[in-house]
Amino acid sequence: MLPLIPVAVGVLATIGIGSAVASFVYGELTAEQKKLQEEMHNDLARLKRAQQNKLQKLLEQFQIDEATFMASRDERIAATRKQYFADRQAQSDKHITRYIALAREQISVTENIRKEIEDGIMRLRTLTKIQKTMLRKEAMEHLERELNEAKNKAYAYVQYLKQYEKQLKYRRHQIEAEQLLFSLKLPEDYPYVGKLLFFKKSMLDEPLFQQQSMHQITLKYDATDKELLQSLDDEAMIPVIVTNFNLTTYSYDLSIGKGFLKHIAINQSKIGIEATVVQHTEKKLILLDYNGVALKLHRKNLENPRKVPPIGAKLRVYPTGWDFALYHPVFVSEKYQDSLKSFQFETLPVVFSSQGAEEFITYLEENGCTNEADEWKIGPLDASSTLIKLQLGEKLVFAVRFMDGVQSYFYFECILPLEESFQPEDIFVVMDAEFEMVEEQDFELLSEKTYEHMLDLSVMLFKEFKIQQQLNASMEGLSFFTKWTEVTEKLIQYLYKGKEVICDLSETARVYKLPNAMLYAHEYELLNAEDVRQRLVQLELTGIVEFIIEVEKEQYVLADFDEVVHHLRVYSESPMLSIPIFQLKVYVKNFCYPEIQQRNALNAFRSGQLVNGQLQSYILNSKNIEPQTVSLGELMFQNKQLAENRAQKEAVEQALAEENIYLVQGPPGTGKTTVIREIMAQYLQRHPSARILIVSQANVAIDNVLKGFGAQYEDQMIRCGNIDKIDNQLTPISFDTKYKAYVEKIAQKEEHGAQALFLTRWKSLIGCGQDRANPIMGELLVKNHQIIGATCLGLMQRQIGLDRVEFDLVIIDEAGKALPAELLIPLNKAKKVVLIGDHKQLPPVVNPSLYDTEKIELENHSYCVNDLFVTSLFKRLYENCPDTNKQMLHTQYRMPAVIGSMISQFFYEGKLLNGRGTAERPTKYFDHHLNLLDLSDEVQYRESTKNATVTNEYEARLVAKLVKRIRAKRPVEEKIAVICPYRGQMRCIREALRKEGIHWTEDHIAVNTIDAYQGDEAELVIYCMTRSRRKTLYFSDEARLNVAFSRVKNDLLIIGSLRYLQSYGESHILYKIAQYIAAHGAILKEEDVLERKPVLVQAYTK
């Protein structure tokens, strides 16, 4: 039972609905029903025991077993058997008669309940009209939806009982005792108008399909908008809503469009949907279409009411008003903030006994729970309790009871252990409110407004709890993707703020109402008009530009400048406006296409719009993965050496044999590129016309695969992405090169007569003489190639049109570094997918603004930061995936054995082996492969944190000198990588190299952060610790250290303070690495490195 049901029952009492009806509304049995249920269970148990006892006596009488008794042709046994079944049927008939009578009583009760609900709805509508507050009105509207659902459930329950009676009469000779028991509430799988159900697309495609419910009741269904299924896979799980019972076919009509709307948008209103404008009415209403469902948008609820969207335009909208079964058009708003109105509560009062108050205050003082900025989480204590759990931040969890009556309030029960804190999969609501302690003797002094506020809060909490419960039940694992969708939506709203223009305004404004929009213009004089004009010129704005002002967090109003930039006009719905007039930030509204593509991919995935529908279930929870394989026969490997590596060989064979999904973990240097090429070559050999997409986070990873893939496929390869970031060797197969070549070819054609008009139109369509590629032509170009390479970001480029292409095989490299939505963009388009990554290396890079509560307020911020953002989707999938569908590549060939063993020991539980040639690998500059330059005694070696970044000037100068010496002794073909923990130090080292006369890009020297260098490698790697004083959690991130030390092919030098590494303690990874270097490498001094006479200084001691 959900908590707050007693509260909801109390709310319904205010509109004249009794407790019995209220229990039906919220799916709870009354005391009488529970008693009847127990009586029926006991009665049928007695009947079954009596039948079994009678049979046992007969078996003992004849001294035979049951099978012999039932099959024997002996006259005496046959006569006894006949009498046994006659007596049994007589007993059964009496019970059937009784249970039909009981069912008819329930029909009568339920019909009375339905009548009472209908009367309650009428009274509620009268109350709703006189509500003044938005919250109270929304609470009343929600109650009306609850009552309408209950009315439909009541009708369905009557139909269920009638079907039950019909089945008893029809099958009276086949009924077992346990089959007599009917449900005292509507069975979960029984349909009613407005109910949200999920079916596979293959079922919905049938003209009529049927399923069986309890008592072998057959239910028939028919989807009325099957055209929406055309682009979906047969295995996709599709949300539908029951819209009607068809008396002609005796089947339930289902709406796919309404199912998508309710599942994707209404049940999760903060996410929104994309709808198409179809009509403008005289009443300033805009009619929209979403999958055949009518939506209504008031012009005042446009983001820019002055700019009316044309018919055919696509708008992102959020539901604001709807009826339960979606009989009527749904009202929507284009304003994101309109979806956030449900939980704007100012205070959260809790009543305490004197003893409870003392316990509570003592706990607060002892545990330092004083951070008022922390968010509240409210949810059920557990599945069976009616208590509510409240959590403030990470230090306080306590239970309250909701006291319902004339005056409703939360009453403190007890402090809970921190182990009871909410987990991500739990049901809870996050809200901002000021906590208010009220002593028991004073609670009657609370204002009537406070009690109303608590009543509203209880209704809205119950609504949210119920929705979350339904979502959790509908699809396991969906909450992870729902949360990512909400986070992405929040990020999009924040990124609307583009470049800023600082304005100083006059103290007063001319205010006037716009004639054709329900808006007021506030016109301010610009006191710094010349500065504003220069800034606008500097921004080089082109096309249609919109400006916005953030009036409150994540709430914007539109603004613009007059033609001569003397005035700023700000638009609002009210003649009253409060904005700062000094240093006001006016933002250029930004259209963040990559994030919008990610949101679209998340929504497509959640609604089952995948090319291979089975992948949805597997990605939601990889425990669901079941191997589906085809026989390959013996493979003739293109790369003969690969056959000698068992893990690589098995990864290729199993990935090829699996029809849906396969995962490969590829630690550093284990030959992921080799495996990818072999899978591609073998797949094309078996499927010559297949289309393959190879995608990765890193350009270099894509380029490495395509460069070595084979000249025979060159004409069939196309490399999509920014031409400046593609390897020069791949320029001939780049999208830009091939698109330009095609355009130039068409531009040179000349036609006369009938063909001339067609050619002119064709040249216009493909963009002859234009810089930007036409997305339709981009799509056609991609479809005419079999091997497509792109980064996750490149996939999101609009002009390429990749989002409209399907692929037979998608291979995603560096999958551990991709955000869930970045993975879903190619995955949604895949018939088969192979994911290759390493969850022991760096997780995805999340937009820094999402960590900053001053910029973006995320619900359950701590969960987002500590779990959602740091656990990659690849990790979730790999760790739960059955062994049949995954493989770890366990032999590394990149690093010298001494470094490979260190990486294996500290990051891969010793499972990573060293391949052939790694033990004999020569050094390039140092005498040892593994080196630590100890600067513990150098007083100048210390970090600076000026200008909000960490730098170390001494380290930067030392690195520049060392790199200069190494480059003088080693050929330029041998790459040197300088890896830094901080961007500030990266810039500092680049500047030091410049002063030494070294052009780091031309001299084959990479200077970068750890995050930027994953996926690359170098003959010599210099890792800069930068810090020597202050300890930091940064160096506890084992994934970063793994990446930093595993880039090396020959020599690794770590620059730092041995004393600093020791200061972390024996259990820390830095201490262990220092100990390992002392035992297996060299600890050096500065003069040894610069004079190039490295020797082992001394053995390491504690």
TrEMBL record:
Top-rank lineage group of the source organism: Bacteria
The UniProt entry, under SUPFAM superfamilies, shows:
P-loop containing nucleoside triphosphate hydrolases
Question: Which portions of this protein are annotated as coiled-coil regions?
Answer: 33-61
Keyword list, A-Z:
ATP-binding, Coiled coil, Helicase, Hydrolase, Nucleotide-binding
* InterPro entries according to UniProt: AAA+_ATPase, Coronavir_polyprotein_1ab, DNA2/NAM7-like_C, DNA2/NAM7_AAA_11, P-loop_NTPase, SF1_C_Upf1
ATP-binding as UniProt keyword? yes
One of this protein's Pfam families, by short name? AAA_11
What range(s) does the AAA+ ATPase domain occupy? Answer: 658-868
Alphabetically, the GO molecular function entries are: 5'-3' DNA helicase activity; ATP binding; hydrolase activity
Q: Which family does it belong to?
A: Belongs to the DNA2/NAM7 helicase family.
What protein name is recorded for this chain?
Answer: AAA+ ATPase domain-containing protein
Highest lineage ranks of the organism?
Bacteria, Bacillati, Bacillota, Bacilli, Bacillales
